[in-house]
């Protein structure tokens, strides 16, 4: 019977090497699997924390919602922010603001070389200088009205203060200048003294006013006894958290424009539910990542990370915070034994009718309430420079590098052991072959014997 039992030396060397190295290999593979699982767990934790941070950020700005309605929507629109308060206001709109707009007809094309500079001034003292000699872009040496308009729009210091365009009417091109903002302080004037071409200077020196620079004039209250407001914009932001943009003047026979700001109870309740859902999603992610495991379930990838467990507990503690004696529990938000939040809608609605501002105080950034405290704590984990996640990810990278070196070293050890076994089994094969040849010689010798 063959010592090699029909196996080649290479096969036996490989099998023997794998048997010799199996404990070290298994140990390294386990370490690499654990490192990979921890890395993936940190990625999932980061995603869960960022999702909660994003949801919390939006809710912190406007947990308690208000709505604003005009008695006649034709007169304008309303935007309501987080610090709005319920109230009613009346307006008489006497005049709408408008942006200054001028047109210049008979615009000639002029030679770019030595064309000079056009000065544009606004009533607020701002000025723009347009170098006409650099306005030519098609390299034919002439500056067209369209190229002049482009030069005005792209002039240094303009940045939308004055918008220029070319309009063709009855086959004639006209340069149109429009102030970027409404109001008398943005009225446009031109200085043509720096223009060398007389025809261009003459055209720009004579304008037609298409729209005057006009301020908005309206009254908070009626015209006879209300507070007069004059401003460059049609948007009034004098009411905390509310802005009204007027689009129509009040006629002599029209009733005053009434603005009603009220608590949006349904929208606020939806925000509370959104917070509860966002928190529960984070809570479930943390529970899965830190699961201790057992006979029938595997442990979570971060089960051994005490810091992540502390994160879970800290958020739970912050959830029970209060501002001026007000808690989330007072608004119908409670947790079961497992830590999952739920909302009692009846209790929530009753608390909102009684004191909506208590809920706002729990989440705004002024009172160090739940929202602000959670935001601050989340930053200690999510900071891209020195956050807990950043440090853990860096630690994983160090471990991965170490395991990679161990893998390289283990491969070198494998190759070394394999070569040794290969030499040994090759020698065995050679010896076996020599023995077979010797036996064959003996078998070929004549047999001597007698009776």
Structure description:
With 451 residues, the chain is α+β, with helices and mostly antiparallel strands. The chain has 3 domains: 178 residues; 80 residues, no CATH class; 111 residues, no CATH class. It is built from 9 helices and 21 strands. The strands form 7 sheets. A 5-stranded antiparallel sheet has the order 1-17-3-13-14. It has a 4-stranded antiparallel sheet with strand order 9-10-4-12, with helices on one face. It has a 3-stranded antiparallel sheet with strand order 2-16-15, with no helix packed on it. A hairpin with a 5-residue loop joins strand 20 and strand 21. Helix 1 packs antiparallel against helix 8 and helix 1 packs antiparallel against helix 9. It starts with 8 loop residues before the first helix and ends in a 7-residue tail after the last helix.
Overall pLDDT metric: 91
Rg measurement, Å: 41 Å
Largest sheet composition: 5 strands, antiparallel
Total individual domains: 3
Total of DSSP H or I helical runs spanning 4+ residues: 9
Beta strands, count: 21
Weakly predicted, low-confidence segments: none
Characterize the quaternary organization of these chains. single chain
Q: Which class do the helix and strand fractions yield? A: alpha+beta
Amino-to-carboxy terminus distance: 34 Å
Widest beta sheet: strand line-up = 1-17-3-13-14
Order of helices and strands: HEEEEEEEEHEEEHEEEEEEHHEEEEHHHH
Helix content: 40-55%
Task: Summarize this structure as a short list of keywords or feature phrases.
22% strand; alpha+beta; 21 strands; 451 residues; 3 domains; 44% helix
């Amino acid at each position: 019977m063959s010592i090699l039992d029909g196996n080649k030396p290479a096969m036996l060397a490989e099998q023997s090497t794998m048997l010799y190295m199996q404990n070290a290999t298994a140990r390294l593979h386990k370490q690499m699997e654990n490192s990979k699982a921890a890395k993936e767990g940190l990625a999932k934790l980061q995603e869960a924390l960022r999702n909660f941070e994003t949801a919390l950020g939006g809710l912190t700005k406007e947990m308690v919602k208000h709505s604003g309605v005009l008695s006649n929507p034709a007169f304008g629109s309303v935007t309501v922010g987080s610090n709005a308060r319920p109230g009613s206001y009346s307006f008489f709109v006497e005049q709408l603001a408008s942006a200054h707009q001028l047109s210049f007809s008979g615009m000639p094309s002029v030679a770019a070389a030595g064309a000079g500079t056009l000065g544009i001034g606004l009533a607020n003292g701002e000025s723009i200088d347009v170098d006409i000699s650099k306005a030519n872009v098609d390299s034919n040496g002439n500056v067209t009205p369209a190229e002049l308009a482009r030069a005005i729009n792209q002039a240094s210091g303009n940045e939308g203060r004055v918008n220029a365009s070319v309009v063709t009417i009855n086959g004639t091109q006209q340069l149109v200048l429009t102030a970027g903002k409404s109001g008398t302080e943005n009225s446009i004037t031109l200085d043509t003294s720096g223009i060398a071409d007389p025809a261009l200077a003459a055209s720009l020196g004579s304008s037609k006013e298409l729209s005057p620079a006009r301020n908005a004039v309206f009254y908070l209250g009626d015209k006879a006894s209300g507070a007069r407001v004059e401003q460059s914009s049609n948007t009034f932001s004098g009411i905390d958290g509310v802005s009204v943009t007027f689009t129509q003047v009040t006629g002599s026979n029209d009733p005053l424009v009434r603005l009603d700001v009220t608590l949006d109870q349904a929208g606020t309740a939806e925000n509370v539910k959104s917070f509860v859902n966002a928190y529960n999603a984070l809570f479930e992610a943390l529970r899965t990542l830190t699961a201790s495991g057992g006979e029938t379930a595997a442990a979570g990838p971060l089960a051994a990370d005490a810091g992540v467990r502390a994160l879970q507990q800290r958020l739970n503690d912050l959830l029970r915070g209060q501002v001026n004696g007000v808690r989330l529990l007072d608004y119908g938000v409670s947790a079961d034994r497992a830590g999952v939040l739920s909302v009692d809608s009846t209790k929530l609605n009753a608390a909102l009718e009684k004191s909506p501002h208590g809920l706002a105080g729990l989440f705004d950034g002024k009172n160090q309430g739940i929202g602000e405290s959670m935001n601050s704590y989340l930053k200690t984990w999510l900071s891209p420079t020195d956050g807990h996640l950043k440090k853990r990810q860096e630690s994983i990278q160090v471990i991965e590098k170490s395991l990679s070196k161990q893998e390289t070293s283990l491969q070198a050890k494998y190759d070394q052991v394999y070569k040794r076994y290969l030499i040994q089994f090759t020698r065995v094969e050679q010896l076996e072959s020599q023995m077979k040849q010797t036996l064959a010689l003996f078998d070929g010798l004549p047999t001597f014997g007698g009776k």
